Structures are given as structure tokens and as C-alpha cells.
Amino acid sequence: RFGFGLQLDSGGIVRGSRGARIAANDGAGVTLSDGAFLELPEAEISDNGGEGVACPRRCYLALNSARIEGNESSGVIMADGAVADLSNAIIDSNAQFGVLAERGSIVNLSNATVQRSGFAGVQVASMSWGNVSQATLSGNNARALGTQAQLVAKTTAYLAISNGTELDGNNPLTRPAIDNPVPLSPISVDND
């Protein structure tokens, strides 16, 4: 066991081969920041003591067809302009959020499965954007948010949900407020 599995910053670039395994680290499986770029198709990022993937600032992450599961914090957490493509990913059984995007981040979850998260399956907050297309979100708890939710859009966040996204559970689209209920806009739902 190590403190972390992979750490990139200051413009570091890793383009890995298919099937990389980053598992059983004491901290995060992957930590990226400051212009780092990571592409690991079909990676397994699992059973880490922190986040599966942490992108706290200005990084790009492409984890197409990855499995991000069983991490003691969130599956993927991103902020401050981070961009993640999680197409065809399976994000399963993480202790906190499946995916948390905040402070100007962008996340693509086309054909992804996000399930059995301790909190919301996907939470997009603070000027961030989430694209959820043909995804399956199920069995996510959101107990710490005071609501049962699969997708959560906080103030000034945007979610586009389209093309056959499957949402199992109670109140799948939620915008919790501190004191008063707030309408769901600007969440958009398009089933073309």
C-alpha cells in the first residue's frame, strides 16, 4: 500500500494502455492538478483509502470504459475547471459521491453506470456542467444531503439529461436548498 497510486501535476501527461489497475492505496488512487492530462482506457481504480480520482484544479481526465469502485471517499471528485470524460464507465459502491463536479468543472457521463454511492450518484455544483446521456443511475443514497437523489444540481450548476437515461429511486432530480425548496431549473431534460 502506498499513499497514492498515481499523481500528476504541472502539465504532466500520461496516456496508458488498456486495463491499468490502481488499487489498495492508503489515499487517492489518482490525483491530478494544474494542467495534468490522464488517459487510461478500461482502467480499474478501486479499493483506495481516499477518492478513486481527485482532480482538484484544471486537469483533463479520460477514463473511458473504466471501473471506479469501492473507494473510501468519492469515485471521482473534480473542481476549478477540471474536465472529465467518463463515457462507458462503471462507478460503483464508493463511500461518498459517485461523481462530484464543482467550481467550473465539466463532466461527461455518456453510457455510464453510477450506482450504490453513499451520497448522490452525481452532484454538479457551483458553475459546473454535467452531461448525462444514456446513463444508468441507481441505488445511490444521498443521505447526507437530506434527500434521496440520483442526480443533484446545486445553485448555479447545469445538468443536461438526455437519450434514455435510466433513473431508479426516489426523487431522481433534486436541487436541495438550505431553507426553502428551489425549482429544478436550470436542469434540462431532453429525450429526443
Low-confidence stretches: 144-149, 170-192
As a percent range, the share of strand residues is: 35-45%
User: Percent range for helical residues?
Assistant: under 10%
> In this structure, how is the largest beta sheet organized?
8 strands, parallel
Q: Please give the number of β-strands.
A: 23
Count of DSSP helices?
0
- What characteristic shape results from the CA principal axes? globular
Q: Structural class, from secondary structure content? A: mainly beta
Q: What is the C-alpha radius of gyration, as a whole number of Å?
A: 15 Å
State the strand order across the main sheet.
Answer: 1-4-7-10-13-16-19-22
Question: Gap between N and C termini, in Å?
Answer: 47 Å
Averaged pLDDT: 81
Helix-strand string: EEEEEEEEEEEEEEEEEEEEEEE
Write structural notes for this entry:
This protein is an all-beta fold and 192 residues long. 0% of the residues lie in helices and 39% in strands. The chain is built from no helices and 23 strands. It has strands spanning 6-8, 13-15, 21-23, 30-33, 37-39, 44-46, 53-57, 60-62, 67-69, 76-78, 83-85, 90-92, 99-101, 106-108, 113-115, 122-124, 129-133, 136-138, 151-153, 158-162, 166-167, 173-174, 188-190. The strands form three sheets. Strands 1-4-7-10-13-16-19-22 form an eight-stranded parallel β-sheet, with no helix packed on it. The protein has an eight-stranded parallel β-sheet with strand order 2-5-8-11-14-17-20-23, with no helix packed on it. Strands 3-6-9-12-15-18-21 form a seven-stranded parallel β-sheet, with no helix packed on it. Residues 144-149 and 170-192 have low confidence and may be disordered.
